[in-house]
């Protein structure tokens, strides 16, 4: 899967923010695992590594393409998902569910790829949705606010 320039720039910014926030500490890298503590919200999705970001049902976690950092109570990184789901419905799902989890939509774009930019006190989130011929790929970047 080739990443677009926008995706590379956004990922670089997120990783720079994570590294800046972690300077002076020894970050630990954790393999992404599904959170057992969070229940599905009416069967529409489930929480993975971030307990305030609901992921649509049907999306498959791409562990080999995901990176999660944890320092103290702070988690940051990128988790990747892919599956045969409609990109527009994924976009709409995140708009609805992120608001319910107290995220503020800061901006978005829909073409050629879809991106949603969110913030809440202490952290930011970028959700990148890419339509493929047979699959939709989702990248969720989370970083602390600098």
Task: Give the averaged pLDDT, no decimals.
Answer: 79
Distance between the termini: 30 Å
What is the tally of helical segments?
2
Radius of gyration: 14 Å
Biggest beta sheet attributes: 8 strands, antiparallel
Uncertain segments: 6-10, 16-42
Order of helices and strands: HEEEEEEHEEEE
Overall helicity: 10-25%
Shape: globular
Total count of strands: 10
**Structural class of the secondary elements?**
alpha+beta
Strand content: 35-45%
Structure description:
By secondary structure, this protein is an alpha+beta fold. It is 21% helix and 39% strand. The protein is built from 2 helices and 10 strands; from the N terminus they run αββββββαββββ. The protein has helices at residues 5-21, 87-100; strands spanning 28-30, 45-47, 54-56, 60-61, 67-71, 74-83, 104-109, 114-120, 123-131, 136-144. The strands form 2 sheets. Strands 1, 4, 5, 6, 7, 8, 9 and 10 form an 8-stranded antiparallel β-sheet that branches. The protein has a two-stranded antiparallel ribbon with strand order 2-3. It is globular. The termini are far apart. Mean pLDDT is 79; it is low at 6-10 and 16-42.
């Amino acid at each position: 899967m080739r990443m677009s320039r926008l995706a590379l720039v956004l990922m670089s910014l997120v990783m720079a923010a994570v590294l800046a926030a972690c300077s002076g500490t020894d970050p630990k890298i954790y393999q992404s695992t599904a959170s057992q503590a969070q229940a599905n919200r009416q069967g529409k999705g489930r929480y993975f590594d971030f307990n305030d970001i609901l992921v649509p049902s049907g999306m498959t976690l791409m562990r080999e393409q995901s990176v999660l950092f944890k320092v103290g109570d702070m988690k940051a990184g990128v988790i990747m998902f892919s599956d045969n789901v409609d990109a527009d419905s994924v976009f709409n799902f995140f708009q609805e569910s992120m608001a319910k989890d107290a995220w503020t939509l800061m901006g978005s774009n829909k073409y050629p790829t879809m991106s949603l930019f969110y913030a809440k006190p202490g952290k930011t989130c970028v959700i990148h949705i890419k339509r493929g011929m047979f699959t939709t790929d989702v990248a969720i970047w989370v970083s602390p606010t600098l």
